[in-house]
Amino acid sequence: MNEYIYIYIGGVSLKNPTLTRFFAFHFILALIILFIVILHLLLLHETGTSYPLGLNRNYDKVGFHPYFRIKDIYGAVIVFIIFIFVSFQTSCIFIGVENFIPSNPIITQVHIQPECFFYLLILFCSQFQEKLVVLLLWLYQ
Fold first, then answer.
1. Helix, strand or coil, per DSSP, at residue 43
2. Which domain of life is it from (predicted)?
């Protein structure tokens, strides 16, 4: 059982190997999803959609290139410009007021509390000594 703990979470405690694997998994998963979406759009643009009744309706189709590809590129550029504007110009509208309070390294701030989805994990960790059981119970929730 302990070899599974070292493989999946990097040890019996949550330290650097666990965080590295967590970050790598989320980073790679996002890239895989992005690749699948781009592949789906390319295949859709190449073959077009199918007509559900099975009739051949090729005579009134508009080709995807260049109309819809230019439209997709234009939409992506607009979204990217809005993202850049929000990220660099108005990023403070998403930050809470508590984040501007100077920190005291001795006392934990009042507004810092565990998130509700970690309550069950904290309960499991305090009740069970076997870390694999805790991991399975947390994944089952």
1. helix
2. Eukaryota
- Helix/strand/coil (H/E/C) assignment for every residue in 113-125: CCCHHHHHHHHHH
Burial of 10 (0-12, 13-18, 19+ CB in 10 A): middle
- Tracing tokens 């989320």 back to the chain, one arrives at 26
pLDDT digit string, tens, across residues 123-136 = 766 776 777 776 77
pLDDT higher for 61 or 87? 87
CA distance 110 to 6: 35
DSSP codes, 46-115: HH-PPPTT----GGGPPPSTTHHHHHHHHHHHHHHHHHHHHHHTSGGGGS-GGGGSPP-SSS--TT----
